[in-house]
Amino acid sequence: MDKNIYYEKMLDKLKYNFDINKNEIIGKWQFEIAAKSHIRNEKYLGFKSAVIYAFENDEYIYGKHFQNISKENVEGLIELLKSTIDNTVEPHDEHMSTTFTALITVDEPVDEEIKNYIKKFKYQKSFLFGFKGWVVVRVILVELHNHQVTGSKEARKDESFYLPQ
């Protein structure tokens, strides 16, 4: 499958819940897509100004395409996402979670060592022991030539969403 077709299909899936930018640049990396979702839930008593509790969930998806990929590329992308946490996430009493997803698409076959690295990858950071929320970094690897998806530990439940169709 062609990367442009794949990303157009992903944009169709994401457009209802995400704000989407194409060709966004963060640091030295240019991403094919960058999507952001902000969801706020609240419970109120009688009228909306009497809020009992509220919580917010944010999600960021950054799609990057490679002809072929190395372990250094994956590590560099993960480090970039980790470094954006402090600039992007503002922990507060209503912050519940923020998820950063690195969506990596590849044309060429991927080495099993890289797939195993992604499968074992897990990163979480909590703020004030979780009382001000937490951050999760996930990695999804999509092989466009054979329609395989490999996800990190936190991303496995969402692998089917990213399948090329």
Can you put this structure into words, describing what you see?
It is built from three helices and seven strands. With 165 residues, the chain is of the alpha/beta class. It has one domain. Strands 1, 2, 3, 4, 5, 6 and 7 form a seven-stranded mixed sheet that branches. Helix 2 links the parallel strand 3 and strand 4. The protein is globular. The model has no long low-confidence stretch (mean pLDDT 89).
List the keywords:
3 helices, 7-stranded mixed sheet, 165 residues, 42% strand, alpha/beta
Secondary-structure blueprint of this entry?
Layout: H1 3-14, E1 19-26, E2 29-44, E3 51-66, H2 71-88, E4 95-106, H3 112-120, E5 123-126, E6 134-143, E7 148-151
Parallel strand pairs: 3-4, 4-6
Antiparallel strand pairs: 1-2, 2-3, 5-6, 6-7
Measure the end-to-end span.
Answer: 9 Å
Largest sheet: 7 strands, mixed
* Count of alpha and pi helical runs: 3
Which class of secondary structure composition applies to the elements? alpha/beta
